[in-house]
Amino acid sequence: MKLIYLDNNATTAVAPEAAAAMQPFLADQYFNPSSMYAAAARVARAIKDARRDVAALIGAEPDRLFFTGCATESNNWAIFGAARARPERRHIVTSAVEHPAVRETCRELGRLGYEITEVPVDREGRLDMNAYVRALRPDTLLVTLMHANNETGVIFPIEGLSRIAKETDPGILFHTDATQSVGKIPIDLAGNFRHVDMLSFSGHKLHAPKGVGALYVRRGAPLRPFLIGGHQEGGQRAGTENVPHIVAFGVAAQLAKRHLDDESAIRSKRDRLQAELARRIPMMEINGGGAPRLPNTLNLAVHFVEGEAMLYQLDAHGICASSGSACTSGSLEPSHVLTAMNVPFTARHGSIRFSLSRFTTDEEIDYTIETFPRIVEALRRICPYWDVARNVPRPDAARNAGAVAVG
Amino acid sequence: MAWEYSEKTVQLFMDAVHGKPGTHMGEIENPDGLGEHGSIVCGDALRFTFRVERHPTDPRLDRIVAARYLTFGCTSAIASSEALCAIIEEGRYTPIEALKITNEDIVKYLGGLPTQKIHCSVMGAEALEAAVFNWAQRRGVDLEKEGVRLSMKDENEGRIVCKCFSVSEPYLRRKIRELNLRSIPEITHALKAGGACQSCHHAPGGLQDLLDEIWGRAAGEPVSAAASPEPPAAGEPLSPYQLMKRIERAIEERVRPALQSDGGDLEIVDIKERLVYCRLKGACAGCAGSAMTLKMMVERVLKEEVDERIRVIAV
Predict the structure, then answer these.
(1) Which of A46, A213, A238, A319 lies 20 to 30 Å (CA to CA) from residue A393?
(2) What SS3 class is residue A272?
(3) Are residues B123 and B45 in the same domain?
(4) B22-61: string of b/e by CB count within 10 Å (b at 16+)?
């Protein structure tokens, strides 16, 4: 059975060109780029080229782009590094729907005595702009808000958010976790993102291999290094460079830049999937459907069906997807993103995320449109809250749904 | 989906979803026993029904001949429901005998469950107990006389310890003893209690207190988990009231009328000392020159009328 990969917000297939480009650096081009001979200089040159290509994807000056191990490291660095650089400021503004790499890092500072304001979102996942404005304070150290949400694909208006922070106080640092958006939609740190101080992303979300990320730091932005003990990356991120992966990242970034125009093709596939599923499945929410969204992401909440059970069935049909259901997370809590969006409780455990890439074909979308509604139907047949004959919730569903134990 | 399920678990789940003959998915009409456990808020729920072959004279000797379930939940919740029904039908138990089936029997039947999924098997055992209670009421069997202690009714009315999953104190007390739960993670894996917001872990009368009370405080255990330090009091400097009032008045008197004559309006989002956050509304909102309007018109008026250091920020 051919695998249908619709989980590109989790990770992406490595582009063949990127895989090929890294091979020499896993073989005879093993030299330490810091060493003082011609062979090493060639390796250093390859890193420089990669830095130029990755920086070009986001409109950054190459010398302000630092390679890291992953976006999580970039986020940790941005947040802890800002706190260490500006110890007199003790307040951080973030959102209720950040990736754990930001959310938990902020909360860690909260345990160290920092005050953290988590700005809420509305039913569509849009940031509450009034609450955001009210959150900004004279002692605000950092604003850290994601560009696109990993679960729903909802895009925050970083251009306006960063401008408001800077107009309030140029001393406030503005960081954005752009892991889900870089390579999918245009970002220009010299243009629409000119008020952004720091931007995190990673390679493996844009068809580079896992194990390499980057942090952009605007010139003059006060930030302490996170990994200390070496001159690499201009002394900002110590540790011998991960040369093969950095090289692959560079190639993947070049390809991503070239394919930014594919956005509308991916969007039309996603929109078709959304429309056809909505037509076939009663009582289904499109999470974030009313907000600006990444072109590749579709997050559904199916009432009265549990997400993990759907994933298992999808897998049996060769379709890879994700769910924000509690049962998939190792915790018992459903997705904090859907909870913050106030998705109805009858659907909160029934979320499914399909995320496409430029490699997704029309046939794969057809097959998913064919298959997924049948899975939902089968699971609703098992569900105590669903009237199969009439294909609607049972009239007593709402009452029983809240019951804990009925004798 | 990194759960590692046994082959048996996956097979039972797949068979149920495909409605394979011999599986127990469904609901018995006019059942002799009906029990429910869980709720859709918690992420899993089970409706369990059974039918008995009635004993002509002594209802205590009724035998369960058919058992069915409807389950909202994940792979292991559905497989646990299937296992429960299979165990009961294979055993041809009386309802009172069936009460001896524990969640461990379900786990054994499934060939094991991941630790975090134990609560799926507990849900099965609880629904069974509720159904037997229901059967006893219908058939006029006094379970207490039979030496069976079913305290669910009171348990549902007790103090709620875990608010996220509505788990009551009497229920927790019974289950901590029955399942020999010795730590908070064990409670969470088996009963879900404490698995979401976690505020009941170390609250007075919370999970740790119940554990300590039932098992005694273990030597060397910290008295309570290090509570996170209170955040320092917000040193919010109050924006001078007078200034704010004057800004508002200037906007009312000079800015609004001008905008409204063009079919627009202005919303003040916030005023922080001399920073005024505004949003243009109505016809002005979509206007290409809206940012300019704010800067040139609103800011200029406020500088003239109130304080020249005022800055207007578009939201």
Answers:
(1) A319
(2) helix
(3) yes
(4) ebbbbebeebbbbbbbbbbbbbbbbbbbbbbeeeeeebbe
pLDDT mean over A12-30: 98
From chain B residues 15-34, the ones with a CB under 8 A of any chain A CB are 16-19, 25, 27
Q: What's the whole-number mean pLDDT along residues A368-388? A: 94
Residue B267 is part of a domain; what is its CATH number?
3.30.300.130
Closest residue to A345, CB basis, from B40, B46, B192 = B40
Percentage with pLDDT > 90 across chain A = 88
Check whether residue B160 and residue B202 sit in a common domain.
yes
The total number of structural domains in chain B stands at 3
Q: Given CB atoms, is B12 within the 8 Å cutoff of chain A?
A: no
In a domain, B2, yes or no: no
Tell whether pTM > 0.90: no
Asked if residue B125 and residue B11 are part of one domain, the reply reads: yes
C-beta atoms of A401 and B41 within 8 A: yes
| Range of the structural domain that residue B15 is part of | 7-149
The answer on B177 and B286 residing in a single domain is no
B104 and B162 in a common domain: no
The CATH number linked to B178 is 1.10.10
Q: Residue B72 domain-assigned?
A: yes
Q: Is B177 on the interface with A (CB under 8 A)?
A: no
Selected residue of B7, B74, B129 to mutate for chain A interface (largest A Cβ count, 10 A) = B74
Residue B231 lies in a domain: no
Report the CATH number at residue B89.
3.90.1010.10
Instruction: List the one residue out of A54, A51, A55, A104 whose CA is nearest residue A76.
Output: A104
Q: Note whether A136 contacts B272, CB cutoff 8 Å.
A: yes
Which of A44-58, A316-330, B211-225 is the most confident on average? A44-58
Task: Provide the residue-wise pLDDT of chain B in tens; the chain has 315 residues.
Answer: 456 899 999 999 999 988 899 899 999 999 999 999 888 777 889 999 999 999 999 999 999 999 999 999 889 999 999 999 999 999 999 999 999 999 899 999 999 998 888 888 888 888 999 999 999 999 999 888 888 876 555 566 678 888 878 788 888 988 898 888 988 988 988 888 888 778 888 888 899 989 988 888 754 444 444 444 443 344 344 457 888 888 988 999 888 888 888 788 889 999 988 899 998 887 777 666 777 777 778 898 898 888 888 999 989
**Does one domain contain both B16 and B119?**
yes
The answer to whether position B33 is within a domain reads yes
Q: Do B38 and B94 fall into the same domain?
A: yes
Inter-chain contacts counted by CB atoms under 8 A, chains A and B: 168
Q: Chain B, 45-104: which have a CB under 8 Å from a chain A CB?
A: 45-47, 70-78
Active site residue A327: yes
What are the tens digits of pLDDT across the range B162-192? 887 878 888 898 889 888 898 898 898 888 8
Are both B28 and B145 inside the same structural domain?
yes
